[in-house]
From TrEMBL:
It comes from Penicillium digitatum (Green mold). One of its GO terms (biological process) is mycotoxin biosynthetic process. It holds the Pfam family p450. This is Cytochrome P450. Keywords: Heme, Iron, Metal-binding, Monooxygenase, Oxidoreductase, Signal. Belongs to the cytochrome P450 family.
């Protein structure tokens, strides 16, 4: 891999968790679907077994370790002002249990990082296949940001096309094609039935954004919108009213992704910074972007490894990345490195 690209990925915090996302997806990919033949009969043993495996995966997620590290540092008189430190500062008021502390860290980081680490490789894959979209992204980034610095959050309101690319990525390869399951908190009247309390359901996100998936095909990135009479390419089309622009990438209803704010900022930084530095071209070998064969099917929906050739756009950008990497290493990363 291009060494400069490694420096850039270090500056994009959520991307380093992409391998964990792959692992989690593989370990849960055999989760049984559909209800058992009769209540509490049939697949109940398999479901219980898989539930135990899922609990094991989640309980071994590394973020609770961060609490252990933070507590030890605080005993030595160190308080770095991190999110975990701020939670611990309020312990006398909230009296949270250890599992609650662990879940808070997981919710903020795991949920936001899952979206970032899964969707960013898919968007890069789409850019390789759509050089015209890359050219539009270059023009906007060069006009708003230039080559002497990397994008910051204050730039986002001016990076309209980058925002459109992110939203199109949500539509093209949603990381949760069926969304998270929802459960009714109380008995509720539906269109044709009265589901009981605790009844679970899933949203058909993939079908909502691509139409019927019974033909095993999906619309290409930057294709004309699934809505009728819209000849524009999708990133251009979604620049209109909010009805056109919104998507269901973070779920539906009141229980949307709690990591939405972290995910949005991480992904906008990634999608704005990567095209700033590199021209992504096809690598050696075939690329399979088919949603059925080219992606890991599991709890998380991630692109399999694909050939990619990142080409540095110019030497000014090289100097910018190396300078910002050195500054981040000295001023930021060093604060959170033991030893």
């Amino acid at each position: 891999m291009e060494p400069l690209l490694l420096h850039l990925l270090v500056l994009l915090p959520a991307i380093v968790l992409v391998r964990y996302a792959f692992t989690c997806g593989h370990r849960i990919s055999t989760m049984p679907v559909g209800p058992p033949p009769l209540p509490f009969i049939g697949n109940i043993h398999q479901i219980t077994k898989k539930h135990t495996q899922i609990k094991y995966v989640r309980s071994n997620f590394p973020f609770p370790l961060k609490y252990t590290t933070a507590i030890q540092l605080r005993k030595d008189g160190h308080n770095d002002g991190t999110f975990i430190d701020k939670v611990l500062d309020r312990q006398e008021k909230h009296h949270l249990s250890w599992p609650q502390l662990a879940i808070i860290g997981r919710v903020l980081m795991e949920e936001g990082s899952d979206t970032s680490s899964s969707l960013t490789p898919a968007i890069v894959q789409a850019l390789i296949q759509n050089p015209d979209v890359q050219r539009k992204a270059y023009a906007e980034i060069d006009a708003v940001v230039g080559h002497d610095r990397s994008p910051v959050s204050e730039d986002f309101e001016k990076l309209l096309y980058i925002n459109m690319m992110v939203k199109e990525g949500h539509r093209w390869r949603p990381i949760l094609p069926l969304c998270f399951p929802h459960a009714l908190g109380e008995r509720r009247l539906g269109r044709w039935q009265i589901p009981p309390q605790g009844y679970s359901s899933r949203g058909q996100h993939l079908e909502n954004v691509h139409g019927s998936v019974s033909t095993q095909t999906t619309l290409p990135f930057s294709s004309p919108s699934v809505l009728p009479n819209t000849p524009e390419l999708a990133p251009d089309y979604v620049s209109g009213t909010w009805e056109r622009r919104d998507h269901y990438g973070y779920g539906v209803g009141r229980r949307i992704c709690p990591g939405i704010h972290l995910a949005e900022r991480n992904r906008l930084l990634a999608v704005a910074t990567l095209p700033l530095a590199f021209d992504f071209q096809p690598g050696e070998g075939p690329m399979d972007s088919d949603p059925m064969n080219g992606y890991h099917n599991g709890f998380l929906y991630c692109a399999k490894d694909y050939p990619c050739r990142p080409i540095l756009r110019n030497e000014v950008i090289r100097a910018t990345i190396e300078r910002e990497y050195a500054t981040a290493t000295a001023d930021v990363f060093s604060r959170f490195t033991e030893g």
